[in-house]
Amino acid sequence: MDDPQAAEHLQVIRTIMERAALYRRALAPISITAGVLGGIAAASGWFAGLDAARSFTSFWLAVGAATLAASLFIVRRQALQADEPFWSPPARRIAQAMMPALVVGLLAGLMVLLPGASNSRAAWWLPGVWMVLYGCATHAAGFFLHRGIRVFAAVFIASGALVLLYVNARLSAGDLPALRFAHVVMGAAFGGLHLAYGVYLAATERSVPPA
After folding, report:
1. pLDDT of 31-53, one tens digit each?
2. pTM of the prediction?
3. What is the pLDDT, as a whole number, of residue 14?
4. What pLDDT shows up at residue 25?
5. What confidence score (pLDDT) does residue 79 get?
6. Which residues contact 12 (CB under 8 A, 6 or more apart)?
7. Poorest-pLDDT segment among 54-68, 120-134, 185-199
8. Which residue in 88, 100, 182, 200 sits closest to 146, CA to CA?
């Protein structure tokens, strides 16, 4: 490796370390926002009676898109306040790390929207699948962030696996509950876990010196 390459790699490492601290500060408002949106969405889906596979899937795909947009807005606002570029090399690496699992989650949802997939109980697999894939995406991003987020990701993966085991057992027994209850599962996971993690980060960041 020649000197220019070594210098470039050192600059990338330095930028990642600097941005890692910044993204950790941004994680608290992002997590709290995602938690609030997830909780509101779960309550809305429940009271609106969205218990058909397509309405359930379309609704939560829209909630996911809205949450992603809100998260990007928060990150952009922080980048502007810090006088830094929004789409920096570290930001691209985090996006690239999360992208595969998020795309698979999107494809899983789109499969339920296909004309042949009209069984309302078919969407019961989605909460567990989405939780596992989101945990994998978050865990991959965790290599560029504070290591605590990988614990958060592991909780998502373990919870999603338990939901899948539950769905499989109830499906085998033929007494899977109405899809309406899946809104409760989504709210507990994407609302409750995000909100709890965001509050934890907001409390612990007070003791972290500014970068």
Report:
1. 999 999 999 999 999 999 888 89
2. 0.83
3. 62
4. 59
5. 80
6. 89
7. 120-134
8. 200
Residues 195, 22: Cα–Cα separation, whole Å: 20
Query: Bigger pLDDT: 154 or 15?
Result: 154
Q: 209 phi and psi, to 5 degrees?
A: -65, 145
Outline where 82-193 has alpha helix (H): 89-112, 125-141, 148-173, 182-186
Residues with Cβ within 8 Å of residue 63, at least 6 apart in sequence: 37, 38, 41
Q: Say how far apart CA 154 and CA 161 lie, in whole Å.
A: 10
What distance in Å separates the CA atoms of residue 182 and residue 55, rounded to the nearest whole number?
A: 12
Which residues lie closer than 8 Å to 27 by C-beta, 6 or more apart?
Answer: 145, 146, 149, 198, 201
Q: How many CB atoms lie within 10 A of CB 110?
A: 12
**Per the structure block, which two tokens stand in for 184?**
């409760």
Distance CA 175, CA 59 (A): 24
Cα-based distances in Å from 206 to 4, 104, 147? 39, 36, 18
